Amino acid sequence: MLGEMRGGNVGTHIEISTGSRRLLFFQGTESPWTFPVAVGKPSTPTPPGNYAVVSKIVNPGGILGTRWMGLSIPNGTYGIHGTTIPSSIGTYASNGCIRMHNQDVEKIFPMVAVGTPVVISSSPLDLQVQQRPPGEDGKTYTVQAGDTLWKISLRFGVPLDVLIQTNHLVNPDILQAGQIIRIP
């Protein structure tokens, strides 16, 4: 399922890989922003499928962090939200929701409208260097364990500040294995 919407869809949408514990945020034809997430633990898995954002709340309280985006998943209350437990990000820890770092969910929240499509799949993301679609220059690189932005900069011959700006990195000192970095 992941990647199916990438083709001709020029609108904003979200894809979540529970296998890679990553959220990809697409806006227009730009390369997606990618964020580490926590997803449902084995006893309460995040349900795969095609959904939409049905509600948005600022400062929902409790473990939900600073933002909540409710999803149209039947038979329960599921959403994409921040967290008061940042150490859970990158793990299988939730009751089925998708947890993000508060600063990450705050970044995409204003750009997500009610009705935004959300695709959830258990398929892991392709962890290889990928060519971007025809007509777009550059490529993407998936961060591997032990990578730093400096190492990626040297590997591809791209200035560090250009990588930071191109990828909208809030904290370039923190990279997660599986994170997708756009190489201009």
From TrEMBL:
Residues 139-183 form the LysM domain. Signal peptide: none annotated. The active site is at residues 81, 97. Pathway: Cell wall biogenesis; peptidoglycan biosynthesis. InterPro entries: LD-transpeptidase, LD_TPept_cat_dom, LysM, LysM_dom_sf, Transpep_catalytic_dom. GO terms for biological process: cell wall organization; peptidoglycan-protein cross-linking; regulation of cell shape. Residues 12-121 form the L,D-TPase catalytic domain. GO terms for cellular component: extracellular region. Transmembrane segments: none annotated. This is Protein erfK/srfK. Keywords: Cell shape, Cell wall biogenesis/degradation, Glycosyltransferase, Hydrolase, Peptidoglycan synthesis, Transferase. It holds the Pfam family LysM. Belongs to the YkuD family. PANTHER family: L,D-TRANSPEPTIDASE, L,D-TRANSPEPTIDASE ERFK_SRFK-RELATED. GO terms for molecular function: glycosyltransferase activity; peptidoglycan L,D-transpeptidase activity.
